[in-house]
Design brief:
alpha+beta, Alpha-Beta Plaits, four-stranded antiparallel sheet, 4 strands, transcription, DNA-binding
Length: 142
């Protein structure tokens, strides 16, 4: 069994259940607990695993709205704007993108009005941010 195949199986289990114990991961990936521990430690050290999180169904989240916001940034201000966006508490996650927008931000707010305020009062005020296009998440399907 190759090292890559073992790593892939361990990562697959973690992606399905970030709270799985080493024993559960070992059983599902068909390796020993010490092997799981070794691989996970190495993957964290290498920056492959950057954190563990809970998946949330936006429809069932009380008093919160979740939106993916496509953000356009002027290329000469990209680094500074990205740093400023990462510092905002309302930005849960920030991704670079090859799609319609340079960046995609997961933004959480109390409701649509609050999201609009975050966009106009915070996101669009960052030097270099030229546009923000929200898409509200409605229901987690998978």
């Amino acid at each position: 069994m190759s090292t890559q195949a073992t790593e892939d199986r361990i990562l697959e289990v973690l992606e399905e259940d970030a709270q799985a114990s080493y024993a559960e991961i070992a059983e599902r990936a068909d390796v020993s607990k010490p092997t799981v521990r070794k691989y996970i430690n190495q993957l964290e050290e290498d920056g492959v695993i950057v954190g563990y999180s809970a998946d949330i169904d936006p429809k069932k989240l009380s008093s919160k709205t979740i939106a993916m916001v496509g953000i356009d940034v002027s290329s000469e201000r990209y680094v500074e704007a990205t740093k400023a966006l990462k510092d905002l508490d309302e930005v849960e996650a920030l991704y670079s993108s090859s799609g319609d927008h340079m960046l995609m931000a997961e933004v959480r707010a109390a409701d649509g009005d609050a999201l609009g305020e975050i966009i106009s009062d915070q996101l669009l005020e960052i030097d270099g941010v030229t546009a923000a296009h929200p898409s509200f998440l409605q229901e987690r399907l998978k």
